[in-house]
Design goal:
Helix content: 25-40%
Number of strands: 10
Number of helices: 2
Strand content: 25-35%
Order of helices and strands: HEEEEEEEHEEE
Largest sheet: 5 strands, antiparallel
Radius of gyration: 25 Å
Shape: elongated
Strand order of the largest sheet: 1-2-3-4-7
Distance between the termini: 84 Å
Length: about 190
């Protein structure tokens, strides 16, 4: 092999490797958004699963308070033994701007009194686009399947639906990903 042939082989090898490396770099830069979107959707799915699990385990508070305490469009507050100990915690799930948070309040003393500040706070999902789309996070239904009205009370509610719309950048594709789930308040009555 002559020197000219060796230089040509090295030059061709360098060009081919450069093209392969550029292709790989472009693949990752073009797909970084899709990968980030997938990660956020996966976080939202896990958060929604926790929410539904906690709602299904809703029970009367340690002080005898009715299990469902607050029902708003983007906030639900209830009592549930989420950590499977001998004490029932007060739990709130709230959509604050684009972040779904879970706050846990423990009871202390005898008679039990629930703390005014959360003992634990979790961020379950970010980039939630419900408010931008005009979609409420929670919908409430009575035992007959009728959606709750302004005159409904927490004791009327037997079923809760939740809907999360996730998109890390609303102006780029892939677009929004919608997650829906629901739970019957099964510890409140034997009819469900």
């Amino acid at each position: 092999m002559t020197l000219v042939e060796s230089v040509v082989v090295v030059a061709l090898f360098t060009l081919i490797m450069g093209a392969v490396m550029m292709s790989i770099a472009n693949f990752y830069s073009f797909n970084a958004y899709t990968l980030a979107q997938t990660y956020q959707v996966q976080n939202a799915r896990r958060g929604l699963e926790r929410l539904v699990r906690d709602i299904r385990e809703m029970t009367y508070a340690d002080d005898g308070t009715f299990p469902l305490a607050r029902m708003e469009d983007n906030l639900i507050g209830f009592y549930s033994d989420i950590d499977r100990d001998d004490s029932v915690e007060y739990v709130e799930y709230e959509l604050d701007a684009q972040t779904l948070e879970k706050r846990v309040y423990n009871a202390a003393g005898s008679p039990p009194v629930y703390e005014s500040t959360p003992s634990e706070t979790y961020t379950l999902s970010e980039y939630v686009q419900n408010e931008g789309q005009g979609v409420t996070l929670f919908r409430y239904f009575d035992g007959d399947g009728n959606e709750a009205t302004a005159t409904s009370t927490v004791t009327d509610i037997a079923y809760v639906e939740a809907e999360l719309i996730i998109n890390i950048d609303p102006v780029r594709d892939p677009g929004e990903f919608t997650l829906k789930s629901s739970a019957a308040l099964r510890n409140l009555t034997e009819d469900f």
